[in-house]
TrEMBL record, chain A:
Belongs to the ABC transporter superfamily. One of its GO terms (molecular function) is ATP binding. It comes from the Bacteria. The lineage of its organism: Bacteria, Bacillati, Bacillota, Clostridia, Thermosediminibacterales. Residues 2-234 form the ABC transporter domain. Keywords: Amino-acid transport, ATP-binding, Nucleotide-binding, Transport. This is Amino acid/amide ABC transporter ATP-binding protein 2 (HAAT family). GO terms for biological process: L-amino acid transport.
TrEMBL record, chain B:
This is Amino acid/amide ABC transporter membrane protein 1, HAAT family (TC 3.A.1.4.-). It is a multi-pass membrane protein. One of its GO terms (cellular component) is plasma membrane. It comes from Thermosediminibacter litoriperuensis. It comes from the Bacteria.
């Protein structure tokens, strides 16, 4: 579904990602793990069009997207839940969700997907008319994911959703992500919490200082010496 | 007499509010100060004037046309000028709009001479509403009501329409707005257009009782900056209150200290407020 080939990218001419290749197949949950500063967010930003690649190709559903503006990439079916949530704080929960559905044309579609999303996140329905900035961190993360689902994406990019959340809430949002995946969504997850991210993923990639150093199924990676040594302290 | 002063201060204040709403909208969404804002107002006044002179159209009838003209002018200002400098340091855009302001003013002078022009016969000219000792000029009343309507129309549009929500989103975070599938380039241009339409409406309403000349937007531009600073940059409600406040202080200051000092009072208030509330009276 998503194919990234020999991607190099970064900020203002300063490279951060070097010659990275990976793919996400339909229905999969794929995790890219690595420590802070490895370049995970940069990869997602390049896929969603906020950054342009220096070189390499990104293909989504057999279409080159690496030169497309971000708003057109959303239309093709990629939703990006950004790091740090970035909900629109001054707007209500409902308006945030409606913005997520910005690319949908018909009102009936929007209504339907809003109901579906409220079914997964009943808490958000309760807080529908509250300003997003008044939500707790965990609720804001839910809102960011829900907002991503509103565009009816084929691929969901989720960036560092455990950031700044209490462990109990991390489990909760991970459960929700599993549920969304079980319903058939293809997910590319980027996480610092290596163990959790690899446990739930079908496949994973390990990113170190802008390069992919290992790949495999979640289980293989968890059992590999590299992951054990670098991230589990074993 | 005092009631009379207060009332006329409030009436003109609402027109100031509308001009300031247009200015604060652009700041709120793009962090850009548009120095040519008042000159769009002048263009609107001339539009109304020429439609009146050449086609005998009443200013109220040509108001939508004037608003459309300034919408397009402002929209194109974004597309042709601002778009190229929006990612440059803040001063670049400021200087670009300053240059545009000088250009429009001088071009107007070249085309239409610096002479004052007046619209002497219109639906509202010389009509008055008398209530006891208080006399309200109909042109001023219509200008105030029209400005209130336009201000609320803009607020309603931003709060309740899809494009309005996209404007709010782009104002809060440009990148996140893009991730929603919002074409921020388009939204910025539309925001500029709406801002232009605000002064377009204000200009058409003012044209019935203000002289029309190439510099006639300058005062409004200046007052709008004061109002936006008082109301808090980017704060639409703040611009609304700030406009009325400035209209009032101008009228009262003129009454108690003499009209030659009325703007001194306005700017004194401005300086005082900035000393104690640098984010504006209604800023956060």
């Amino acid at each position: 579904m998503l194919k990234v080939r020999n991607l190099s990218t970064g900020y203002d001419g300063v490279p951060v990602i070097f010659d990275v290749s990976f793919e996400v197949r339909e229905g999969e949950m794929v995790s890219i793990v690595g420590s802070n500063g490895a370049g995970k967010t940069t990869i997602l930003k390049t896929i969603s069009g906020l950054l342009k690649p220096f070189s390499g190709e990104i293909e989504f559903l057999d279409k080159r997207i690496d030169r497309m503006p971000a708003h057109e990439i959303v239309k093709l079916g990629i939703a990006h839940v950004p790091e740090g949530r970035h909900v629109f704080g001054k707007m209500t929960v409902r308006d945030n969700l409606l913005l997520g559905a910005y690319t949908l044309e018909s009102d009936t579609d929007i209504k339907k997907v809003l109901e579906e999303v409220y079914e997964i996140f009943p808490r958000l329905k309760e807080r529908e008319n509250q300003k997003a900035e008044t939500l707790s961190g965990g609720e804001q993360q839910m809102l960011a994911i829900a907002r991503g689902l509103m565009s009816r994406p084929k691929l969901l990019l989720v960036d560092e959703m455990s950031l700044g959340l209490m462990p109990i809430l991390v489990d909760k949002v991970l459960d929700i992500l599993k549920e969304i995946s079980r319903r058939g969504m293809t997910i590319l997850l980027v996480e610092q919490k290596v163990q959790e991210a690899l446990e739930m993923a079908d496949r994973g990639y390990v990113l170190q200082t802008g390069r992919i150093v290992a790949e495999g199924t979640g289980k293989e990676l968890l059992e590999s010496d590299l992951v054990k040594k670098a991230y589990m302290g074993m | 007499m005092l009631l009379q002063i207060i009332l006329s201060g409030i009436l003109v204040g609402f027109v100031y509010s509308l001009v300031a709403v247009g200015l604060t909208l652009i700041w709120g969404v793009m962090d850009i100060i548009n120095f040519a804002h008042g000159d769009f107002l002048m263009v609107s006044m001339y539009t109304v004037f020429w439609l009146y002179t050449l086609l005998r159209l009443d200013p109220l009838a040509s108001l939508p046309i004037a608003a459309l003209v300034t919408f397009v002018l402002s929209f194109l200002t974004y597309k042709l000028i601002i778009k190229r400098v929006i990612n440059a340091p803040g001063l670049t855009a400021l200087l670009a709009t300053f240059g545009l302001s000088l250009f429009i003013r001088n071009f107007a002078q070249y085309l239409w001479t610096p002479n004052y022009r007046f619209i002497t016969t219109s639906l509202v000219t010389d009509k008055k509403l008398e209530m006891g000792s208080v006399i309200i000029g109909i042109p001023q009343l219509v200008a105030a009501l029209g400005s209130i309507m336009m201000t609320f129309l803009v607020v309603w549009f931003i709060k309740n329409t899809k494009t309005g929500r996209a404007i709010q989103a782009a104002a809060q975070s440009r990148d996140t707005a893009k991730l929603m599938g919002i074409n921020t380039e388009k939204i910025y241009a539309v925001t500029f257009g709406i801002s232009g339409a605000c002064v377009g409406v204000a200009g058409a309403l003012l044209a019935t009782f203000f002289p029309i000349y190439p510099e006639s937007g300058a005062l409004y531009s200046l007052l709008a900056f004061v109002i936006v600073a008082l109301g808090g940059f980017g704060n639409i409600a703040g611009a609304l209150y700030g406009g009325v406040l400035i209209g009032l202080s101008e009228a009262l200051g003129g009454f108690f200290l003499g009209t030659q000092f009325k703007y001194a009072i306005v700017f004194l208030i401005y300086l005082l407020v900035l000393q104690f509330r640098p984010k504006g009276l209604f800023g956060w």
